[in-house]
Specification:
Rossmann fold; 6 strands; binds adenosine-5'-diphosphate; binds magnesium ion
């Protein structure tokens, strides 16, 4: 039996590693599978909140266009809510569990150790996105060590590079839990920002792995 609320942090102390992209695309994949999902945006620069806002603006634009044309409106939406949060709220995970059922994905800010720590402590599982470089792996290693049920996700990987091969080897030597699926650097992923087109194949495969790992971790 899975918990009625599964808290998943997407965390690393570095910016630009793909945290917001990962949080939003996994949320989208879960929602498409019929799961109830909420994204809690703990980054006060609001990458996830702004993404949601762009989708709402596009929905408004389409609704007005449909009204003008007399055509029925097909909602343009993410399929889950994005809600702003902060480390005080993250410090009360029981309240979060009371309030939100299903999957709660917490997007975290860069360079804010307090909030990242609060998210790691609240979460049942933490996904740590990491680009394949020595310095990023070392940051990710620290986040992984502080996490309960940490899973490293290699992101923005340039295919067939030595860095990518070395990163996989290093993680496996350390016996770190990682997603088998590696997210490649793709223009198509970059272009998803602010849209509801969150049907990315690589992230669908990460989502399946996440569901399997949550069961393996025995989160119940
Ligand atoms: N797999 C990818 N391929 C190409 N661009 C990506 C990929 N993942 C993220 N990006 C882009 O990199 C930038 C940083 O990603 P973002 O998810 O905002 O990272 P973070 O939240 O860690 O700062 C954004 O412009 C995003 O669109
Ligand atoms: Mg971000």
């Amino acid at each position: 039996m899975l918990k009625s609320t599964i808290l998943v942090a997407v965390a690393d102390i570095k910016g630009g590693v793909g945290k917001t992209t990962t949080a939003m695309l996994i949320a989208g994949c879960l929602a498409r599978r019929g799961e109830h999902v909420t994204v809690l945006d703990a980054d006060n620069t609001g990458g996830a909140t702004l993404w949601d806002e762009y989708v709402r603006i596009e929905d408004d634009r389409r609704r007005k266009e449909d009204e003008a044309n007399g055509t029925p409106h097909k909602p343009y939406k993410l399929g889950f809510d994005v809600i702003q949060t902060n480390d005080v709220i993250l410090g009360m995970p029981d309240r979060i569990r009371e309030r939100y059922k299903g999957w709660v994905i917490i997007d975290t800010p860069p360079s804010d150790a307090g909030t990242v720590q609060a998210a790691l402590q609240a979460a049942d599982v933490s996904i740590i996105p990491c680009q394949p470089s020595i310095s990023d792996l070392s940051h990710a290693g620290k986040t992984y060590a502080a996490a309960r049920n940490g899973i490293i996700l290699l992101t923005r990987v340039k295919a067939r590079t030595k860095l990518a091969r070395d990163a996989v080897k290093q993680l496996d030597e350390l016996e770190a839990t990682r997603f088998e699926t590696v997210i490649h650097e793709r223009e198509a992923i970059k272009n998803l920002y602010g849209t509801n087109q969150i049907d990315n194949r690589d992230y669908a495969s990460v989502t399946q792995e996440l569901i399997d790992l949550v069961k393996q971790f025995g989160i119940e």
